[in-house]
Amino acid sequence: MIPVPVPFDARDTAAPDLVGDAAAAPSADERADRSLVVWSPELLGYDFGPGHPMAPSRLHLTMSLVRSLGLLDAPGVELVDPDPASDSELELVHDERYVAAVRSASEKGTTDPLRGLGTEDDPVFPGMHDAAARIFHGSYAAAGAVWAGEVEHAVNIAGGMHHARRDAASGFCIYNDAAAAVRRLLDDGATRVAYVDVDAHHGDGVESVFWNDPRVLTVSVHQSGHSLFPGTGFPTDTGGPRAEGSAVNVALPRHTDGAGFLRAFDAVVPAALRAFAPEAIVSQHGCDSHAQDPLTDLHVGVDAQRIAVERVHALAHELSEGRWVALGGGGYAVIDVVPRAWANVVAEVVHRPLDPDTPLPAAWRREVAEGAGEDPPRRMGDHPVTFRPWSQGYDPADDLDRSVLATRREVFPLLGLDPYLD
Length: 422
What we know:
The protein is α/β, with parallel strands linked by helices.
């Protein structure tokens, strides 16, 4: 079983016992029925340069589609333009020497490969510090608004920088805004926060920050580290000695499709979250699990990705009185996948879910065709998907089922669950 939550700093040093003094979470009745969308053209400044997969056009095309679909006009939607985070905010997650190194890289072009700055994945660029700090603050502030009851849900599609570590950049990620959102919820009074990551890559940075903190459950459903960066996130990784059972890792075999992805999600995520009973959920919705993504080997369609968003949303209402912060993440099929996948995330957050047969607006399609010289998709969905729920039985000859059962065997007993029962 996970120990009784006793707050402590993620750096492995003891912190004061705040449980008795933590502010009570606002009730559902006290919270406004509103949603927050973090966005500003300034967020396009996170730009590693021509040819880098993390192209800012991913964000531009997504928000252009979001606007064309009228999602920002839904009742109660608040659009927030974030400022860059202060150093004191950044240092809630990152080492001060690392923050200083990023600032030096940003202002002077100083590389620091030992801290991941100036590598092929994370080349330095002018304005890097402010650009990354703006993304960080967007998610940090969104989490604060959700916990305070100012909004019910929040989304930052520019966020989800889940690889950044306390003292180093990694995997296109400079500052870890996902960890910042979790930290904000804890600092504002939450005693249990669940982090759900469905990016094709393991959410290693967030897991490492909270590895020894029983107040945080990190759940990552990703392509196995045996075949994909960052080479971590195995079923046996279940949390540190003071938080056993607080890390849940589902390592998917290469070429897992949408039906397999949803079967794995169904077999692990709802049960783990229900056992943990979070007061708030932060989720990362990297869409690089798609078959068209150039950096991964999974075959998950936009429709399956959308269903995962719906499931997280439903769990937030079931378990956390609707407190939910959704983030973007990886995704490098810039035209065919990312705009649709993340427009679906925004649609779910603002309670305007989109049918997969919804036609893409003609104006948006013209913008893409004229700007990129490509024929864009015609509707929101791509591959209708059904899946066999885990409750219908386990196939020992199936690679996916063996991977899922490995996770359940390792972590379910630590959560007080039977790995062989629903």
